Amino acid sequence: MRNLLPVIFVFFSFGTIGCGDQAKDHFGRGVELGDMGEHDKAIEAFTEAIRLDPNSAQAFCKRGLAWEMKNEHDKSVDDFTSAIQIDPSFSLAYFFRGFVFKVENQHDKAIIDFTEAIRLDPDSAAAYVNRGISWSAKGESDKANEDYTTAIRIDPRLIPTYASRGIARSRRGEHDKAIEDYTQVIRLDPKHVDSYNNRGRAWIEKGEYDKAIEDFTEAIRFNPNHPDEYINRGISWSSIGDHDKAINDFTEAIRLNPNLDIAHYKRGMSWQEKNRHDKAIVDFTEAIRLHPSFPIAYWKRGVSWELLNELDKAIEDYTEAIHLEPEDAQAYYNRGVVWEKKNEHDKAIEDCTEAIRLDPLFPDPLNQLAWIYATCSDADFRNGKQAVVYATKACELSEWADALIIDTLAAALAEDGDFEKAIEWQEKALLLAPEDQRSACEAQLNLYKAGKPYREE
Predict the structure, then answer these.
(1) DSSP H or E run through 138
(2) Of 80, 314, 317, 401, which residue is 20 to 30 A from 352 by alpha carbon distance?
(3) DSSP letters along 167-210, please?
(4) Residues 128, 118: contact at Cβ < 8 Å?
(5) How many beta carbons lie within 10 A of that of residue 420, not counting itself?
(6) pLDDT-based confidence at 3, cuts 50/70/90?
(7) Which residues are CB-neighbours of 446 under 8 A, at least 6 positions away?
(8) Lowest mean pLDDT across 111-120, 182-191, 210-219, 402-411
(9) For 415-448, what is each residue's pLDDT tens digit?
């Protein structure tokens, strides 16, 4: 929020200092120099005014502002503190000291000062706005929202306040209300790029991708050289399955800033959706180079290696993802699947069991364990009763709507010797299965009708 400080001067005026003509002259000269951006000379003038009138709270406050424009935070805080000591009712001194604390991320101190500024001047919209920003930085979205709302009530024209309240509302999941605030900003300033971007993100959260694309397109029209808008629009295109347009947008973002790890990662995701795993791997690898501690990039690259049947490389990536994020159930599950493909059944069981421990509501590792226990080529690992338990739980978690998991339940029942139920559930799996999986389902159904369980080769 550094760029707000010059704007704030517009909202506040200082009374003239009550002292001799010489002190007034130096004070006035300091104000003129500050307005011209001559902050060093302004400081000299205010210093001379203070020498002539050591009790001038206004001169200390003005010099504090000049120090702050030079990023001399400690000196500015000292001057604002001196102004407060001279005049404890000087609301602006509290406000500006709070502003410096906010810039330095000392939000507890900032809130104390903004609160005192509000007590002294209850109609200070700027104090409410900035206190709201500090509340938001502390994760206190409700309090931030209250302050932004009060600021808007005091001055409905405050564009930054609507924008800030919109962000606070988005963080609270109040996306409809956030959209109202961003829309108000755009009504007041039709070229407010950040609000198009933020409203687009809110539309994404609501699943309204067409509206998100419209907003990001408008943001790009006003700011064609900023990569974030292209990334956001690319995410929207990929969400509706238009991966070619998504790739175009991610590519443009990368052209504008080749060091954006997220753009490489997202483009890799779109290449993966298009089954271009060679290109996906290139992008995931670049994302990892730019951000070596990017766990999801490792396991997404692992997926592409797995689909290219590069199983050892897939295991390496899943293992690194687990190293970076040991609580990631998905990475354990993915690695478990690859271990099973390599006939490392004990390792597959170990990884899937850990995935279930980390996320008991994740049906996929339950399904994988059930499949191993039901169909493993090694009889030492088969356990029909245990397979039925895991498969039933996976079906419950997937609301009995996943053909693959129901297929596993049928295999588990067949291994347990209950062919009547195996046939019943395999027929249901066949009804739910996509076209490209039906022949395999029918083959298994015929096995169960012949009183034979299914075995992996």
Answers:
(1) none
(2) 401
(3) HHHHHTT-HHHHHHHHHHHHHH-TT-HHHHHHHHHHHHHTT-HH
(4) yes
(5) 9
(6) very low
(7) none
(8) 182-191
(9) 999 999 999 999 999 999 999 999 999 999 999 9
Amino acid in the structure at residue 219: A
Asked whether the beta carbons of 303 and 314 are under 8 A apart, the reply is: yes
How far, CA to CA in Å, does 228 sit from each of 292, 295, 418?
21, 22, 57
Query: CA 278 to CA 221: how far, in whole Å?
Result: 33
H helices of 37-106, where?
39-52, 57-69, 73-86, 91-103
pTM comes to 0.72
409: pLDDT confidence band, cut at 50, 70 and 90?
A: very high
pLDDT at position 20 over 70: no
Alpha-carbon gap, residue 400 to 406, rounded angstroms: 7
Instruction: Tell me the one-letter amino acid at 328.
Output: D
CA 51, 53, 55: angle at the middle one, nearest 5?
115
Distance CA 427, CA 63 (A): 82
Of 77, 10, 66, 71, the C-alpha closest to 39 is: 66
- Render pLDDT for 80-134 as a digit per residue (tens, 0 to 9): 999 999 999 999 999 999 999 999 999 999 999 999 999 999 999 999 989 999 9
Q: What are the tens digits of pLDDT across the range 216-250? A: 999 999 999 999 999 999 999 999 999 999 999 99
Q: Which two tokens stand for residue 122?
A: 């209850």
Token code pair at residue 120: 């002294």
Q: Which long-range contacts (CB under 8 A, 24 or more apart) does 184-192 make?
A: 185/159, 188/157, 188/159, 188/162, 189/159, 191/222, 192/159, 192/163
Answer yes or no: are the C-beta atoms of 412 and 370 closer than 8 Å.
yes
The count of other CB atoms within 10 Å of the CB of residue 334 is 26
Residue in 305, 296, 375 with CA at minimum distance from that of residue 330: 296
Phi-psi region of 275 (alpha: psi -120 to 50; beta: other; left: phi over 0): left
- What is the Cα–Cα distance from 8 to 25, expressed in whole angstroms? 24
